[in-house]
Specification:
The protein is an alpha/beta fold. The protein has a single domain, classed as Rossmann fold (3-Layer(aba) Sandwich), CATH 3.40.50. The chain contains 10 helices and 12 strands. The strands form 4 sheets. A 5-stranded parallel beta sheet has the order 4-3-5-6-7. It has a 3-stranded antiparallel beta sheet with strand order 10-11-12. Strands 1-2 form a two-stranded antiparallel sheet. Helix 2 crosses helix 3 and helix 3 crosses helix 4. The chain is globular and about 80 Å long. 45% of the residues are buried.
Length: 284
């Protein structure tokens, strides 16, 4: 009797890939592996986070959002400048298996209203300096998010503060059973040839984009890069929100012309390692 030919069964590999090859999994591995290392730094306030502390704050924010009704697959839109809050919100959305949708803070109220009606977000987060434009956008839009959050004090009527959400004291949500094929981020085009268009990105695209940046620069875990782009678009979100300006780089280059475009943070493969939220005008 002749032996049966070997037939490769990819089921085990597919199961591991589908369930664990996600951006969120990469971040939480870093929280575990590098718990006591510097993860995020805000030069504007001098505050810093270790990986363990960053993971705790992400859990607290995710818990606060969940306590206010945000569920898996809900969209969270946010108009924030490059800041620790941006990073925390982006990671908390992944934790909830919600969809993070950073929105261009330069959009007109009409464009923002279009995004709100297009994505129907459960929550909208905005910087307090954008409060007037946000109120106008909400007046124009047919959809009003059930949760409005303002960062920096003041804001639209019925908005709660970012600090209140992160300090809610709720229990962190379970990790859930999402896959790497689930939509995790939605980016909107600039709208130069029409109204902004939402571009859905699955988690696998985010992981591979981070890998692409690492390979093509190329970067090692100890490298630091200077990124001056805002994080609401892909070119800024992936290399920018995962790279850090070193002190020497900040002294040497001094190239941040806008208070809204700080140098960004630093990465260890698929996770944030440090974030620079300098909110001042530099002189070149």
């Amino acid at each position: 009797m002749s032996p049966q030919p070997y037939v490769y069964n990819p089921a085990a590999l597919r199961d591991v890939f589908d369930r664990t090859f996600t951006y969120s999994s990469g971040f939480w591995r870093n929280v575990h592996r590098y718990a006591e290392r510097l993860a995020m730094l805000d030069p504007a306030t001098g505050k810093s986070w270790t990986y363990a502390q960053l993971g705790d704050d992400v859990n607290r924010l995710a818990a606060g959002l969940a306590a206010h009704g945000v569920r898996p697959r809900d969209v969270i839109t946010f108009q924030l400048f490059n800041s620790p809050e941006f990073a925390l919100l982006y990671l908390a959305a992944h934790k909830l298996r919600a969809i993070a949708a950073p929105v261009n803070f330069r959009f007109s109220p009409g464009e923002t209203a279009y995004v709100l009606d297009d994505s129907l977000p459960a929550a909208h987060v905005f910087d307090a300096t954008l409060a007037d434009a946000t109120r106008e956008a909400l007046d124009i839009a047919g959809h009003t998010p059930s949760l409005l959050i303002t960062k920096g004090g003041g804001g639209a009527e019925a908005a709660v503060s970012f600090g209140e959400i992160i300090a809610s004291g709720a229990d962190p949500p379970e990790a859930g059973t999402g896959t790497t094929w689930d939509e995790s981020t939605r980016l909107y085009t600039s709208g130069t040839t029409g109204m902004p268009k939402g571009v859905p990105l699955p988690s696998v695209a985010e992981v591979l984009t981070a890998h692409d940046v690492i390979m093509h620069f190329p970067l090692s875990p100890e490298d630091r890069t200077l990124n001056m782009t805002p994080w609401f678009h892909r070119g800024g979100l992936y290399p920018g929100a995962r790279t850090r300006c070193s002190t020497s780089a900040r002294r040497r280059f001094r190239c941040g012309r806008s208070p809204r475009l700080p140098c960004s943070t630093m990465s260890r493969n698929i996770g944030l390692r440090s974030l620079s939220a300098r909110r001042q005008t530099w002189n070149c």
